[in-house]
Amino acid sequence: PDGVLPEAVKILLKEKGDLFLQVFNKELLQGRFPRSWKSARLVLLPKPGRDQNEASGFRPICLLDTMGKVYEALIRRRVELELERRAPLDEMQFGFRRGRSTVGAMQEAIDSIRAAGQGKWRALILLDVKNAFNTANWECILEELTAREVNRRLVDLVADYLRDRRLEICSGTRREINIGVPQGSVMGPLLWNVLYDGVLRIERPEGTKILAYADDLAIVVTDETEAGMVEKGNTVMHTVDRWLTGRGLELAPEKTEAVVFTTRKARSAGFSLRGTIIPFSPTVKYLGVWIDRHLNFGRHVEEACKKAERTAMALARIMPNIGGPSSKKRRVLGNVVDSVLLYAAPVWAAALGIKKSMNRLSSVQRRVALRIAMAYRTVSTIAAQ
Description:
The protein is of the alpha+beta class. The protein has 13 helices and twelve strands.
């Protein structure tokens, strides 16, 4: 909003770091967050595969002053240290935390399912929270920080950070906002984790586990019988639903999915949430990976290969065998396809033991290898690689 580029801020901090340090320290001591840094410009990014005529088809991003984000980073680090010392966040939150990723969340879910053993009924339920970040309740965030005995001055500073925020819409009009954590901010992810942490600690039946990656919730349920599994799953979902409702958040039952890992025929119609039946699906997509009821990841390999092939075809236009980019640039472009193809590979590595999946992956990598090596189609895969 202030028009000062990040590069300029970087130079200013390098040349006049002592001056800005004095400014930041003064604001910290007074427990203030400058009002001019609370203004944000709203940018709407289309969500792939979503209806662009609906508000839910866009991801709202807040563009903030870079200097304000530097100050946010200082506050965030202090809050993090307080939380680590007094009341650490739950281990099952994998989003917005150092050393954690989507792969960790997926691996935890898969390991829990496998550890239960094939003799048990096992299920993975994926919950969808409506407009999560934009409806985060500020009062609940501050109450949670207070309950964790975070330094009172820091809590007051966070309260001031949230207060009097303004959003500039594309039309140029400005609106006061009093709810939600700004997507694109430095503090937002941490404040979300603080608010959301309680859902991971709710009392639940034995044989169940709740995992979170940002606002994505997954429930692992295991039991000796199908009826017991369904009952446990319903109980946890209803408890989560009540917890979220009490904090101004809402589940979307129609978007909730579930997969049951068994070779036996299920007799139940599925799980139930607020009167909506959630049927057992043969596959579900969790954090970008397709998980099937046999855990062989056949569908994921196929979907990943299709996506990688589309990327490879686009790159092929700028990588002709005669002319085009240098060998080094070709390898860089080829890595783009590999990153698409091998996303979360540790999670679905079991698929490599299936010949069909292995051949499918090799065929995609072969096409890219031939382009990088500027080789003829008759060249063997081993030679091209």
